[in-house]
Recover the amino acids of this structure.
């Protein structure tokens, strides 16, 4: 075991040789530990103190040793940012993620006051918010918290961690072996170890292993040289192919020029086609207008045709009626002609009788003058009857002439109607409606 305060001396030397760009202390307590005093002595500027216990954090804020320039955070730190079970111990410095009752081998009288779930932050998030290359983990379990640093641990040059000295097997991860194996794999070498006031608990100091760094640098240099060689080969290949590409570019430019000329020609032809299309569109529009006009005329003709058909039907009906009336008129005319002939014959017979009576009366006149007046009266009566018969005969003749005139008019109308019917039938044959 190293002598007391040997670790602090190492820290002083390291601080003088290479001052840290930032210091983060997880588990700072109330600030009464020698580590916080040493930070004040160094007049460190970029310092972050993290404490999970709320009571301890309140005392830390009021500690006059703490600089106003330092950043204080009341956070629970764990391997991952998640909700964790926090144990509040009767010994405030041992409150945290480890069950205090499991530490009774080093603290026989320690007990748990209460447990509660709290939201934790991973160390990587804290280092992202407050970049630091010196990291002090003055709480348990240090290994779990350092695992939460992830790749950010590669930027850490010094780690001081709290561990159990000679831990039981169930608490092996709280001891030195697991922590040392973890940090050495990441280029950190153990520098010294020191007991605390409790002989079961100690502090171990790790610093960046220069040989590891040199090997890493050599590896990086070899990798960079390999990349450089590859870049040279790529450059040679690029230069070799550049000329080919230049020729291809020239060829492409020539083809592009030809294509541009063709495009211009195609554009002119396209413009001409557009003009033709516009002209054709105008013609189509005119034809459409004419077609619409023709359709309107055709619809009008169809309407007229339907009207003519209806007129034909009406004329046909009227012709049928006129024919019937003509037949009736002809029958009436025939009857009247027959009646007139009979009346004329009767008149002729009566005229003959009157003439015979007149001759007879003339003979009687010569025989005696007594009956002369009676004879004259009889002659006058016969003359009146004769005139009446003659007037009736004239009236019948006039009626006959009127019937003949009506018959002629009916004949003319029948002929005209028949001509219209023939015309309509001709239109039906020559003017068929398209489907």
């Amino acid at each position: 075991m190293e002598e007391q305060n040997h670790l602090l001396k190492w820290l002083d030397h390291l601080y003088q040789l290479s001052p840290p760009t930032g210091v983060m202390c997880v588990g700072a307590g109330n600030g009464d530990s020698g580590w916080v005093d040493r930070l004040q002595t160094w007049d460190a500027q970029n310092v972050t103190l993290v404490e999970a216990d709320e009571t301890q954090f309140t005392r830390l804020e009021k500690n006059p040793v703490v600089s106003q320039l330092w950043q204080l955070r009341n956070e629970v730190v764990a391997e991952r940012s998640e909700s964790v079970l926090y144990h509040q111990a009767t010994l405030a410095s041992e409150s945290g993620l480890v069950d205090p009752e499991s530490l009774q081998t080093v603290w026989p009288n320690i007990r748990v006051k209460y447990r509660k779930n709290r939201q934790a932050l991973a160390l990587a998030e804290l280092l992202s918010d407050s970049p630091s290359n010196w990291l002090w983990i003055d709480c348990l379990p240090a290994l779990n918290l350092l695992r939460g640093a992830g790749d950010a641990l590669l930027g850490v040059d010094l780690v001081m961690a709290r561990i159990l000295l000679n831990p039981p097997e169930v608490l092996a991860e709280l001891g030195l072996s697991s922590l040392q194996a973890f940090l050495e794999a990441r280029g950190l070498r153990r520098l010294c170890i020191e007991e605390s006031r409790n002989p079961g608990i100690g502090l171990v100091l790790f610093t960046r292993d220069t040989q590891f760094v040199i090997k890493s640098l050599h590896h990086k240099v070899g990798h960079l040289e390999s990349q450089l060689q590859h870049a040279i080969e790529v450059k040679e290949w690029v230069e070799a192919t550049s000329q080919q590409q230049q020729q291809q570019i020239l060829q492409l430019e020539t083809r592009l020029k030809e294509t541009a000329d063709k495009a211009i020609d195609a554009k002119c032809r396209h413009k001409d086609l557009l003009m033709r299309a516009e002209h054709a569109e105008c013609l189509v529009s005119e034809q459409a207008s004419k077609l619409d006009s023709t359709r309107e005329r055709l619809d009008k003709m169809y309407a007229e045709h339907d009207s003519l058909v209806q007129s034909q039907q009406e004329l046909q009906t009227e012709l049928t009626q006129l024919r019937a009336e003509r037949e009736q008129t002809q029958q009436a005319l025939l009857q009247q002609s027959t009646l007139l002939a009979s009346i004329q014959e009767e008149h002729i017979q009566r005229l003959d009788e009157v003439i015979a009576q007149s001759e007879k009366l003339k003979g009687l006149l010569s025989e005696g003058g007594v009956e002369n007046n009676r004879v004259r009266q009889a002659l006058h009566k016969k003359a009146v009857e004769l005139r009446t018969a003659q007037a009736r005969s004239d009236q019948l003749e006039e009626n006959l002439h009127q019937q003949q005139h009506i018959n002629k008019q009916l004949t003319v109308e029948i002929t005209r109607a028949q001509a219209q019917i023939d015309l309509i039938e001709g239109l039906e044959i020559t003017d068929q409606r398209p489907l």
The chain has a mean pLDDT of 84.
